[in-house]
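Risk mitigation, structural track. In case the binding assays with CU-O-CU linkage fail to produce interpretable data, a predicted complex structure has been prepared as a fallback.
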Amino acid sequence: MIEAFLGSEFIVLLGLVLLWGGTSFSANQIKYALNGGGNVHVWRNITRIGSWAGIALFLLWVVIICLILAVFGWYFVIDRFLVVLPLLALPVCFVITAALPKLKNAAGLHPNYLVAVLVPVHVMLAGSMIAFYLVTLDVPAIPDGQELTIYLAILAVTAVLLWFYHKRRLARILLHQPGILRRMLRGAGCTATFVGVLASWYAWSLETSKFPGSLSMVNHEVVDFGGGTVLAPPGAQGHDHSQPAIGNNTVSVTDLTGPKTGEPDKRFTLYAEKKAITLSSGKTIEAWTFNGQTPGPPIVVQAGDVVEVKLVNKDIEQGVTVHWHGVDVPNAEDGVAGMTQNAVMPGESHTYRFRVEEAGSHWYHSHQTSSIQVQKGLFGPFIILPEKQQDSGDMLDITTVVHDWDTPQGTVTTLDAADTLQTKAVKRGTKVRLRLINSSSLTKVFALHGTSYQVVAIDGEAIHQPGELSGQLLKIGGGGRYDLVFTMPDDPVTLHLYGENTDATIVFSEDGRGKASYLHDGEVFDPTTYGTPAPTPFSPVTSFDREFVMILDQLYLGNYNGKTSQLWAINGEVFPNTPTFMVQEGDIVKTTIVNRSFADHPMHLHGHHMHVLSKNGKPLSGSPLVLDTLLVEPGDIYEVAFLADNPGLWMDHCHNLEHAALGMTMHLAYENVTTPFTIGTDSGNHPE
Ligand code: C2O
Ligand code: CU
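Fallback model:
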């Protein structure tokens, strides 16, 4: 629903620019008309009507932002009220008090007074243009002192300059009326200047948007302490790694490792390599794979295991890493190129070692140019089984990964390597655990048709007393996982992707020959009301050491690392200008996440699990929800909490990896943790 409000706001603001543009033009014509160069009454009337229409449109905008405030809340309009409203309201007052009385009758249009018409109308146009610019291209999501004042200052200076300009110009016109040709030339000149200024500004902004050759992953300039103790600047020495750190207990990410010695309980080797894979339909895809397969080989371990994984890069020129999505590993094992390690280049290897603590369905993927590498296939399931598998004898455990492949013929969606219907023979009465993993960037909607079932875990964390469901639509954001359990009934059961043009479907039946039956309509499953409450470490009334706010916005267009594109912002900024959230070990942290854009944002915090406190102002009414990837849909506002118990430098980003690669990335940093790694062309590290 927020889309409708934001869409109307966009149209109204664009309307304001056009309307005040037209009105400014007609007001300008009065200048010439007064000295016989046109019809004063016509231009006066147009200016008057235009002004009133412009004021009405402004009031409509006010109504829209008030409605957004009432329906969605303060965080959705904070910048509109604090920054944009004054930019429009002050010129409106100026127009009403100065211009409109003069426009009432022709007598008011004495040349000496015309400035009082021209300036307010033109200032109103300037205000509308800045308002439109801010809302579409440069949102001051959480306005700081500079954003609160600078635009008003620009407007005031514009007003003064316009005043002098029009005064002089009027005097000249009255002395000597310019001919139509001169007026047109002058108009063309003004337009050309305006376009020229705009074009140079664009070129400058495109150039300066390029990342430097070497860049620290963590923003040291804009640090948010969440209202808690102000800490030493994170890695203040970050730009010069040879310098000893300030503060005495500085620790480098490279020291925050898993157990370094001893025999691991499980050992794996992942070979990153290019390989053409053949889908079930026979289609081949030029994929980038782990061990030549898609998904990569399942890593299945038990809670408590020490796991060792050796990553070998055979031929991925950009380099690779492995990130253990959803597993809270020590920082050095987190696999983020440029922050916790260097990308592993062809011929090189890197070994990860860590102890896995909690059971659950997770996945692994490369975190080097991840928007490209994950899409091309560098991912696989990572399943941690409970320590003692309580007689899983007759439990069928199936993992399936949904993925979108970019092919020359368009997107192909698969369940594992299948883009066509798969069948599985399952004896009636068998308990089936289905682990659904979404490795694509877009939200996937699953339906399980033909049986009742339970959602027993989300993001690997068990749901407390999950109820029986049927006919529900299960929305899983990019990077998210759902575990479903059902008991095989007499008739076939179909797992399919709802509302997608894909044949990727699994049919379970007694003889393995059952027919698919699709769900055509259903209610969207709401995890915040599912299951029953259980004790949690945090609640909305916990006293928090730090409270952060993340406002997620779309910028309609912007320059990013030398490219022009739609961008995705956090608190009005795109990476690397997004703020760093700073914490101290032991802090209890609350974050409020607000989606003011038209797209889903599955927000993923590395190294920690977020306890959901509330959604859209309502506390959870069902089971505790402990997530690593929180799907925030347009218009949603969530409060989440976590305990800062895993020191390091951690990414916090949208797992629509294209969004992450277009700005929607930031970091959580622990006091005094530094990294020797950098990103940028010099290092070859490009985590996004
Ligand atoms: Cu699954 Cu930062 O990623
Ligand atoms: Cu996103």
